[in-house]
Amino acid sequence: MTDALTRIQAAFADAGVTGTLHALDIDSGAQLDAGADQPVCTASVHKLCLLVALYEQAAAGRLDLTEQIECPPDTRTKGPTGLAAMLDTARLSLRDLAYLMIAVSDNAAADLLLHRVGLDAVNATTARLGLTRTRAVHSFGEMLATIREDAGPGGAGALTDPHVIARLRALDPARTNRSTPRDMTRLLAAVWRDEACTPEHGAAVRRVLALQVWPHRLASGFPFDDVHVAGKTGTLPTVRNEVGVVEYPDGGRYAVAVFTRTAHPAATLPAADAVIGTAARLAVDALRAR
After folding, report:
1. For residues 111 and 69, what is the distance between their CA atoms, to the nearest angstrom?
2. I want to staple 107 with a disulfide (CB 3.0 to 4.6 A). Which of 3, 77, 83, 287 is the partner?
3. pLDDT tens-digit profile of 66-103?
4. Residue 111's closest CA among 66, 148, 58, 69?
5. Helix residue ranges per DSSP H, the chain
6. Are the CB atoms for 23 and 186 separated by under 8 Å?
7. Inter-residue contact 170 to 41 (CB < 8 Å)
């Protein structure tokens, strides 16, 4: 394990990021820890917590996943994907909003679900599952609003300034939606073991997570037809995260959470994206070699 940790830290350094990681063999409990208890801002990774809370509420009969929600364009949370980028009124079920929230990280879909489920219910779900260092403090739209406020009159252009980056509340785990790598693998393990909700609803959660379209982070470390990766990314200025489960044809199941920061404010940094897959692969290989 020591060799794997050294190689993971070297990979982070080569990619120009600082990173934390936790990897967990879901069945044996074997784990690899690289700063696993360090608080991190989750960004869109927190949509996983909302997804689990949604299906827990459905399993308890508190909501119907086929319930239709009106989605007018003038009140939607902004974003580059899904409903957030669409121009016309739409009407979707809760479960289809959940698909958009995870598959393309749709901020508008996420906040429509959060309005229906409630912030308190999300936190109650994570607390019930023992995620003691995980907390949702605001919606995704509110989080983006803090970035606009903190950027000041320079707007989005100011986000290339390291001094502006340093004052963003959205990048401070004490003031935004937060967790730790260990909490996130614990949540994923609960989903894969059907401990988070009923087996029927757990299967639905796993299905949605497997439909995420982004191949450039966690999945890039496992380019095999018979290895399946399901997960959720998170992105903010200087932040690139992903948590997910890697499943092998021999039945091995591994929950991995990787959270990274870079000093470079560029939105496109392929090496910083790819190292998430590299680090995850090194961690999973070490667990499989035990």
Report:
1. 12
2. 77
3. 999 999 999 999 889 999 999 999 999 999 999 999 99
4. 69
5. 2-15, 47-59, 94-103, 107-117, 119-128, 140-151, 162-166, 181-192, 199-209, 270-288
6. no
7. yes
